[in-house]
Amino acid sequence: MSASASLSLPFRSEPSGREMDAFCVRYAPRAPGHAAVRDLCRLLYVIPSEDREARDAWVERCIAWLREPRSASGLHEEEEPQPLAASRLKLLVRVLEGERATRLALSRLVGAVCAEAHGLKLFAQVGLGDHPGFFSELADRVLHRLLPTPPDPERFSDLLHLFPKPGDVTWLESLPAGPLARLLAMVGEPPPPLPDPGMVFRSYLVDALTLLGARIAAQGLTEEVRDRSPGMAFRASPFLRLRRACDSVLARNAAPDTLQELETAVAGCRSVTDTVTQHLEASGLSVKLVYRLDSIQGGLDRMEAIARVLGAAPGEDRCREGLTLILHLLRQAHEERSVRELAKTRLRLMARTTIERVGHSGEHPLISTRTEFHGMVHSASGGGLLAAVTAALSLFISKLSLAPFFEGLLATLNYASSFVAMQFLGFTLAARQPSMTAAMLAGAIGGKGPRPGRMERLEELIPCLTRSQLAALLGNLSCVLLASVGLTLVFHQFTGRPLLEPGQAQAVMDSLHPWRSATLAWAALTGVLLWASSLASGWLENFFVYRRLPEALAHHRGLQKLLGDTGAHDFAGFMLRHVAGLGGGVTLGLLLALVPEVGSFFGLPLEIRHVTLSLGALALAGGALGAQSVLTWGFLAALLGTLGIAALNIGVSFALALTVALRARDVSSQESWRLMRWVGLRLLKEPRSFLLPPASTPAPVAPPEPVAAPAQPEG
């Protein structure tokens, strides 16, 4: 019995030994006992044609055979060694070319699958969900993992059923387009009355273009998008042209000229979204608008990928474009079911919600001259003076032994009033700067892909930022030290006793010991709180801008009667300049005061270690214990602990802020590591440039490129 006949017998589920040997000798003469050939013979021996579940099971077995890690290369005399992913595919193609009956049976199977399934959901909906809310989406994804999945009538949309692992994408990507095109050509002509799979998929793609065009046009014509694309008449909107272009594609079955019209409309829609993004710097945005812009961009990308498939030449080119589209859909399908991807997406939205405004409206301490360096030191000195008073009041409040509520309330008023006073007086607090500098640094890095002049901007920006932080630290710490000693002397002069009791002063020293206490852990926690306060400041200013509160205040009738028209406008500008600082200062005061109280409520001994306040408290303790205590090992160890607090306050807050800022701009990990390596090499080569500005006046530093403003969190 010939091999062709052996593979078409319908009454046995396994080939006989003679049929197996004949098949293996014909298609693997160099290794007739190879497991890949024998498994393929069993797979092709009976190809189901009637039962739907049997067809589904056979397709899964076929893909599993193709995915086997053992290569099927070198089985034929004329065959050269092949890569692992290509060897089994080429073996299958060679067998089908030699087995007409098997080829026809497989064609009938493919035609039956295409006749009973639909692809609209696959091409138009997978990866383009609405994501109505974080918690509802999280619940859906968790339940999808825990509960069994019902069968999908549109089976083409359930790609994960055939490719359940993310690594399957890499395997599909490694398949050669040539053999894959030959395979599709052989099985793509089923006998009548079964439909032609090529025409079926073409109709799916055209329908998907029409549905995507209608959805994107509706999203692009919403009020939020139109209000942020000024100067464009409604009738001239590219989103209207996109809808008409999709109708033309549907009416003429994707003729080449209609695809060209569609490409022009898609480019116009991208131009509108770019314009909207540029205007967000001044107007802010909401989470709903962020989702809408992302959905428009994703839909336009999908439409371009579908148009490339429809416009590709039949054969290998179309197969390559189709495989690219399937890979994209498979990645999107995995991301739609991943809890981790949902968390990453939400983090990116949080980043755009907050960190952009921190870098946009926060302090911009670019120190490039000696004059600017001295100005920062003077500004930070004022912050150190207020911090010394704040530290003294904090220690006084702790001596009152009040109820936790009143102690937390007084501590909040103490911290918040100090930080708000610094904002109004133009003073600087060193530990609050890293969040601002991280946002500026990420703005200079920008987004994905090469950007001209990026390293040149960083070469000027990074040393300026490090000098600013050094100047702020010098001003804060030197002034808080002197002011604390001065407060101790003045208090002793008027009362005849030290500001702190000896027991309380010793407790302060012990609490700052770097290894006999948890002071370094509390310093890291304080760095997290500093970062959180910067998020609050960015969110509050975006809320202020997005709701157009400056315009509302400037035209408020009550304010105009009280302050006059000019006074109302001045007050609106004043609030716009200071709302971020006020929000950040009040939030930081709340966090510093309430976190220890909340920890105590849950039995957690949480404490706060802010470098400026800690050094002020240590100086007050040294003044209470006398000059001889300053030279003891306990005091020196506490001073060393204070330096550790400075490093952790700044390092943790900067690292968190930079991570979120990079996430907001979709900067890749490779680009981030490249930046770190470049900074390290520059630091080793020119360490002085990171500490002090040059003696001569350098060229002005170019500010980071403008970026989209943040979103207001909703829902």
From TrEMBL:
Residues spanning the membrane: 376-397, 409-431, 470-491, 519-540, 579-604, 611-631, 637-662
Keywords: Membrane, Transmembrane, Transmembrane helix
Listed Pfam families: SpecificRecomb (PF10136)
Xref: InterPro entries: Site-sp_rcmbase (IPR011385)
Superkingdom of origin: Bacteria
Biased composition (Pro residues): 695-707
Region ranges (Disordered): 693-715
Protein name (database record): Site-specific recombinase
